[in-house]
Amino acid sequence: MTFTLRPMTEADWSDWLAVDEEAFGSTIPPHRAELFKGNTEFERSLGAYDGDQLVGVTAVCSFTMTVPGGPIPVGGVTAVGVLPSHRRRGVLSALMTRQLTDLHERGEAVAALYASEAVIYGRFGYGRAADSMIFDIPRHGGALAPHAPADPSLRLRIVKPAEARGIFEKVFDAVLGSRPGLYARTPARWDAALSDQDADQGGAGPLRAVVVEDGDGPRGYALFRIKASWNDQGLPDGELRLRELFGLDPAAYALLWRHVLDRDLVSRIKSWNRPADDPLIHLLADPRRLNAIWVDDLWVRVVDVDRALTARRYSAPVDVVIEVDDPVCPWNARRWRLSADTSGARCVPVDDPADLVLPVSALGAAYLGGRTLTPLLEAGVVREARAGAVRELSTALSWEPAPWAGLMF
Ligand SMILES: CC(C)(COP(=O)(O)OP(=O)(O)OC[C@H]1O[C@@H](n2cnc3c(N)ncnc32)[C@H](O)[C@@H]1OP(=O)(O)O)[C@@H](O)C(=O)NCCC(=O)NCCS
After folding, report:
1. Contacts of 214 (CB under 8 A, 6+ apart)
2. Catalytic center at which residues (predicted)?
């Protein structure tokens, strides 16, 4: 099959939507299509054409993302879809290869994405870099432990989300640098996050919000919906669906959870997107009541080994020669010496013997600091040529807190 690749323009918008709708087997409501468009940088999109017909799409969002040590530009890959009539003929492979070349030429050293299925992106050099948790907590198991921080100067205020956006933005901007994976939100991204039409509600009513504040201003917020219901015995059986919860300090964080876990007429609290190291695990009086399912969050692609590895900070000094296997981006496929300490890093091409050999996806997996390399060694993904080299690199790359992007894109 032959097809051509080119960026799409506004004139291609309805075809683009049609490809994504068909690929995902879903319908995008008009207001969500507008929000999607508001977050689209057409010049960073890519369409695959079979003759005149658009058959495959993808796009990149220009993110500023926190990585260990600070913010860097990251290409946020999104809207990937191939028409079912044209699948498994190499359309995605062509789009991904061209997109990575574009990122390389643009000088964006790192790309990240959310995957609809975990089997798709490893072959293009993406590694599972962050995890998130789906929480399901019965309200009767939601009591906090006696040690949970409390601050009597804090108070809660119920707010209307549409009116409190400035507060959310202020709190979010203050936490943004604290966790690898979080990315700065543009106004259009906030528009989408706070969209609250019927089609956004999933039968669970309007978006609700509570803000925690002290005399100096907001210290955190929680966004959620409540699906009210009663069971056959006439007992309240509501479900609180938590969307976001950010606190600027432990007491604010605990107070928000106290509120969310103890709303009247609610029997369970669900959240589809919490960080893997959520402090809630240590705040609950009975942590076994927290039912958690572990899922993948961000997948990361190191587009340029040297630029990516020098753009982040390290937790410990390291000096290793890494042989990188990267058939999709041949400019990475060679041996590199990474010399880093806690103040900075150098990464240069060398011909010295390798201390360890890894696929570029393993570097992507470890890039945000949340994935240790020893399990990848034991799983046969990474190979060690000098004893101890894997642990040295893994220790240097590791970071706290665990990476997490917070909002799907
Ligand atoms: C996922 C999707 C984009 C793949 O597009 P495609 O053009 O069929 O992919 P390609 O033909 O380039 O496939 C490349 C390789 O990946 C494999 N692959 C692609 N998608 C796969 C999937 N969903 N499951 C398993 N393997 C998959 C192919 O079998 C092929 O393997 P091979 O190189 O060993 O032959 C397409 O199936 C799709 O649009 N799916 C629905 C929407 C979606 O999930 N999008 C991704 C959003 S993150």
Report:
1. 151, 153, 154, 155
2. 121, 409
CATH number for the domain spanning 219: value is 3.40.630.30
Q: Kindly list the protein residues whose Cβ atom lies closer than 6 A to any atom of ligand 1.
A: 23-24, 80-82, 87-93, 115-117, 119-120, 123
Residue ending a domain, among 108, 143, 171, is 108
Q: 104 with 197, same domain?
A: no
Question: What is d(CA 161, CA 224) in angstroms, rounded to the nearest whole number?
Answer: 10
The reply to whether 409 belongs to the active site is yes
- Does 82 belong to an annotated binding site? yes
Residue 212 is assigned to a ligand binding site: no
Nearest Cα to Cα of residue 228 among 257, 267, 259, 195: 267
On whether both 65 and 85 belong to a single domain, the answer is yes
Distance CA 20, CA 27 (A): 9
Query: What is the distance in A from the centroid of ligand 1 to the CA of 93?
Result: 8
Could you give the percent of the chain with pLDDT greater than 90?
99
What is the extent of the structural domain holding 76? 4-108
Answer yes or no: 126 catalytic.
Answer: no
Same domain, 253 and 167: yes
Copy the structure tokens of residue 116.
């609809």
CA distance 270 to 298: 21
Last residue of a domain, one of 232, 265, 294: 294
92 is in an annotated binding site: yes
- Tens-place pLDDT, residues 342-370: 889 999 999 999 999 999 999 999 999 99
From 3, 49, 253, 409, active-site residue? 409
User: Does the pLDDT at position 3 exceed 80?
Assistant: yes
pTM: 0.97
Say how many domains are in the chain: 3
Residues 277 and 327 in one domain: no
Q: Tell me the Cα Rg of the chain.
A: 23
Flag whether pLDDT at 98 surpasses 90. yes
pLDDT, residue 2, reads 84
Which of 82, 97, 119, 297 for a ligand 1 pocket mutation test, highest count of atoms within 8 Å of Cβ? 82
pLDDT over threshold 80, residue 1: no
